[in-house]
Design goal:
I/LWEQ domain; 179 residues
């Protein structure tokens, strides 16, 4: 679960830096890592002694993941906004007819996007419904994940992802500074 999400995040980050990917993909992957980490902590709290030092360390590592997720998401949104602002059109030179044509094309595009958004939200709901069904059947923990993180303790797994999550956050901060 964690390894796959981390790999997705790294691939999304690489694509974004190369100009081939979307910042939204990176944001989703980052949020998935934070959510998976939170799930791990909750599951550990259910099974572990509340006063356990390892549980305390795991909770602290989870807070670090959440912090780094915020940095990655914030950096991605900021970079996306900078790029978007650079791509805005200047409409000051349009004639009345050209402006009306642009307006109508924009209205058509808005309607298309609204329909696409509605369909994608439905799809997301169906995927989540299936995910919850599958998680209920086997607890969601029985998949063998590429990268074999099975031998890592929960704290070690979170630490590994925290490290790479922060590396990505720092990379995007650098990206913004050089942009």
């Amino acid at each position: 679960m964690y390894q796959h999400t981390y790999v997705d995040q790294m691939e999304a980050a690489d694509k974004v830096v190369k100009g081939e990917g979307k910042f939204e993909e990176l944001i989703v992957c980052s949020n998935e890592i934070a959510a998976s980490t939170a799930q791990l902590v909750v599951a550990s709290k259910v099974k572990a002694d509340r006063k356990s030092k390892k549980l305390s360390e795991l909770s602290e590592a989870s807070r670090g993941v959440t912090s780094c997720t915020g940095k990655v998401v914030g950096s991605a949104r900021e970079a996306s906004q900078i790029i978007e602002e650079q791509n805005l059109m200047d409409f000051t030179s349009l004639s009345l007819m050209q402006a009306k044509k642009e307006e109508m094309q924009s209205q058509v595009r808005v309607l298309e996007l609204e329909k696409e958004l509605e369909m994608e939200r439905y799809k997301l709901g169906q995927v989540r419904k299936r995910h919850y069904q599958l998680a209920g059947e086997n607890g969601g923990w029985e998949e063998n994940i590429e990268g074999n993180t099975e031998n890592l303790s929960p704290l070690d797994a979170v630490s590994v992802f925290l490290h790479y999550h922060c590396v990505i956050a720092n990379s995007f901060s650098w990206f913004l500074l050089t942009f």
